[in-house]
Amino acid sequence: MEETDASKLLSIDDVWDNFCAQLQEAKQNLKLKEDELEQEAANLTRIDLTEYNNHKIIVSKLEAAVETLDIVRVSVFGQPSKIEIK
What we know:
The chain is mainly α.
């Protein structure tokens, strides 16, 4: 087996930050698509929901990944949860 260079490993905080950044970007893309769909509906244009649904799926998957990572953070590493319920 090949040895892993410890300097190449990501910390749980690095992974957390990465997933949170991806989630924020996905939420922004979803909001842009929602705005676009509202404009199309106001103009009575034909609406294709394929892209919108794809954005929703990405957001849902990233939210699940962040929640799972938080469970690992709390249960395995004994760190406090970073999820704030508003």
